[in-house]
Write a structure and sequence with these properties.
Length: about 400
């Protein structure tokens, strides 16, 4: 079997999962508004996902490392996604939505991290570019955002469960054909996890990037409501995500050409600067069409930031604990950051409007970029971090 053939199920899994993910990211806030929830209540529901991720991602990462399989961990999580999503979308009261949402997110949030962890390991095994595999997730996200936006504009957001289940079922079918990673080490024990907990550079780095990822996650949660606030509709929301994720796919696809030019921290700082500029521009906008066109910056902010950060923390984690470390990173990037982004963002957009929300997001990104620069130049930066884990 050629390299490309063995990677095809993995690429299709990333495509299908991120196609489901765009439906949740892009339209769940609009769906919850249709259900009668206000901005603050929507913020509470959206915060459930990141809260569940804090527990579920390290748990499933540990299980994956313990039993030395990413494939079957993914299969279990996708089955859980399909069952719990049906129940989640039946709920109508706030408390019921929150409780069932916690179960739903317990299974869904680790899938992206496990898929990326598997992609990183397969890329290393086959000596191919990780970005070239990961871009298929972005392509799935972009395709779904465009198609589903058009469909929901026609039939109504209340039917968003149907395309979600379609892509979820496709994800399960391709997951069963995945090539698993071969791990030659002994199964991980709980005491081994202490190696991550004692890794100071790892946790300092996670704390700093959280300032930037909080702004990113707030945008994930509320860009749809902001576009609607400025006069846009579901089609425009889908188009905004499409433009953003196409640029992200391009960044991943060509990562092999640009990624080795500088130290990974330099790329993370550049992305932080661009995030800051992006949010301040969004704060000043009063026409949704400008949001759509400026979404091209999504690729050079999230694409560069995520790829560089993921590669950097991979070097800080012992090989034995790759899945656990990757999912701890995911728990912070999408979990802790998502809680703050959803709760703070929901209250701000409710009370002061989207312009104020994006201005404060710009301030968060600026603070994170300043701290990243200090992390890079001070002793606990790159050189010390590299020696720490060798």
């Amino acid at each position: 079997m050629s390299k490309n053939e063995s990677l095809t199920p993995l690429k299709m899994l990333l495509f299908c999962f991120h196609a489901t993910n765009t439906i949740i990211l892009s339209y769940l806030p609009i769906y919850l508004k249709y259900k009668g929830l206000d901005g603050t209540e929507i913020g509470w529901v959206l915060a459930v996902g990141p809260f569940a991720a804090i527990f579920s991602q390290p748990f499933w990462g540990y299980m994956s490392d313990k039993y030395k399989t990413v494939k079957w961990t993914l299969v279990i999580c996708i089955i859980g996604l399909l069952i719990s999503s049906v129940l989640f979308f039946q709920m109508n009261q706030l408390i019921a939505i929150i409780l069932m949402g916690a179960v739903f997110y317990f299974f869904t949030t680790p899938i992206g991290a496990l898929g990326d962890s598997l992609a990183q390991r397969r890329a290393d095994d086959l000596n191919v570019n990780f970005g070239g595999i990961r871009m298929w997730g972005s392509i799935g996200f972009a395709t779904s955002s465009l198609i589903v936006g058009k469909v929901l504009s026609t039939v109504g957001v209340r039917y968003m469960i149907l395309p979600y289940l379609f892509f979820g079922a496709c994800a399960l079918m391709v997951a069963l054909r995945l090539t698993d990673v071969k791990v030659e080490t002994e199964p991980v024990q709980l005491k081994d996890v202490m190696k991550i907990i004692r890794n100071k550079p790892f946790f300092i780095f996670l704390f700093i990037i959280m300032l930037i990822s909080v702004s990113h996650r707030a945008n994930d949660s509320f860009i749809g409501l902001y576009i609607e606030q400025l006069g846009g509709d579901e089609t425009m929301i889908g188009l905004a995500w499409f433009v953003g994720v196409v640029s992200e796919a391009a960044v991943f696809a060509f990562a092999g050409l640009w990624f080795q030019k500088f130290h990974t921290l330099i790329f993370i700082m550049i992305a932080g600067i661009l995030y800051t500029i992006r949010w301040f521009i969004y704060a000043a906008i009063n026409d949704p069409i400008y949001i759509v066109s400026l979404q091209v910056l999504h690729g050079v902010t999230f694409g560069v930031f995520y790829l560089a950060a993921f590669q950097y923390i991979t070097r800080l984690i012992p090989k034995l604990l790759q899945s656990t470390g990757h999912l701890v990173f995911y728990a912070v990037f999408f979990g802790v950051s998502g809680i703050f982004g959803s709760l703070i963002g929901g209250a701000l957009i409710d009370s002061y409007g989207g312009n104020t929300l994006y201005f404060i997001m710009g301030c968060f990104a600026l603070a994170g970029t300043i701290f990243l620069t200090l992390y890079h130049v001070l002793p606990f930066g790159k050189e010390h971090a590299a020696r720490e884990v060798e």
